[in-house]
């Protein structure tokens, strides 16, 4: 009841022209497009506050999309072109950067286009595929990010628990195969969800999948830090093997860096998770939810900053590659 009153107030105060005209226009659109887009989307067309918000959403997404694409591409190129960085943990960083790079290249422009064109096309039915893409693509690439974080949590747990065994058992090529295989399985899963799964169970499956994607990397990192606490005294204080201690310290540093990515990604998801169950209203779905989705996508611009800031070797290699490219 309260939500209905708020929606009516928004329509009354925010539309161009009189309330009667705006409602008549909305009803006309409903009659023509009821099978194309949800009513809560159609009801927002012509509302000035939604229009202003969507213009701002489009500007923010396009601006950060450029930064996310270029910065993550620079990270990937630097790791590939620097032999000293060809380590399993950096393969995981490449996977994370690839997901963020694709977010800047594909997801953010698609989402910005959807929010912008909603107010500039006379026939909303022409936007149905763009609307579907704006909902599916963020889930796809956020899932890729969490897959990388889940693999990373298992990798770091093994590295801090058995540093010497990790060095001989885990290779860059093997890690690349794991990351690529996980991405392929995830893409197939999303395609099946979008094409085969009935609408009645789609949302519960989406919620369960999102929950698992959050729980697995978080749980893995908790186990990693418990292992660190257990092994600190044993390895750093009692070991006489300098190589063992050095490898362990490197694993500790990498685990700490990955914790920053986990925290940043989880914080970006908080607004989205809160608003997910209230999306189907004019106010939440068109004023609040787009900003929550934008906050989630902006993590693709935050991650490369964390990588470059925390990883000294990557930072120095980036400077070297940039200077070499400039000279050439």
Automatic annotation (TrEMBL):
Organism of derivation: Desmophyllum pertusum
Protein localization: Cell membrane
Organism superkingdom: Eukaryota
Protein name in UniProt: G-protein coupled receptors family 1 profile domain-containing protein
Bilayer topology term: Multi-pass membrane protein
CDD domains referenced in this protein's UniProt entry, alphabetically: 7tm_classA_rhodopsin-like (cd00637)
Keyword presence, Protein biosynthesis: no
Gene Ontology cellular component terms for the protein in this record: plasma membrane
